[in-house]
Amino acid sequence: MKTTLSINSLFIFLALSSVHSRPSRAAAGAATKEDTQFIEATCNNKDVVLPNPSLCVRYLSPFAGAVKRDLAVLARVAIDVTHDKTNSVVTYMRKNVSAGADVKAEIALKDCWNTYLVSSIGEMENSTNALKAISAADKAAALGDVQAWMDAALTDQDMCTAGLEKKVADMNLKAAVLGQMALVKQLTGNALALFHKFSCSNGGPCNARINTIIIH
């Protein structure tokens, strides 16, 4: 399935300047130079097609001490970080509704988080839980489930974005929320790419939907 993100540079700038914060999950353990280099090398590996390698390094490097050069842990942490960021976007949308967004914008924001982002968050929780509990006996099936959940999470984010683009008239609000959604979608794409790198080497799915994500 081909997904095209038509997000201009203003949206991306607003997302990075107003949304970025340290993930809520604390990085465990002290990172060595090799731990940090592992994350940098994996994020920038040409065999792992990420929508945004620099965001991968920026958001995952604080967890180098916990990852300890383990690709399975890195994939799980990437999903966890995206889960937390998506939660923060829901909080932002709720604040805008409370602050008195116009009726159409309010409907679009509520539809986005109630219908799509809550579902996306649940699918990411399912994914991390499955990766934590994975066993040799059901590894292939579990990895297939994770791919299905992460694909669904990205589809939910696409649907949310489409509704916001059509229904939010206030250009400042639109730029802010679409910028945040662009960031979440790139983080989700990064997490999906890292998962596929792990999955493909462990008997699971290798087809990465993120290969067809286009960031303008």
From TrEMBL:
Cited SMART domains: PMEI
Annotated signal sequence range: 1-21
Pectinesterase inhibitor domain segment(s): 34-194
Taxonomic superkingdom: Eukaryota
Protein's organism: Cuscuta campestris
Name of protein: Pectinesterase inhibitor domain-containing protein
CDD domains, sorted: PMEI-like_3
Keyword Signal: yes
SUPFAM superfamilies referenced in this protein's UniProt entry, alphabetically: Plant invertase/pectin methylesterase inhibitor (SSF101148)
Molecular function as annotated in GO: enzyme inhibitor activity
Pfam families: PMEI (PF04043)
Keywords linked to the UniProt accession: Signal
Keyword set includes Signal: yes
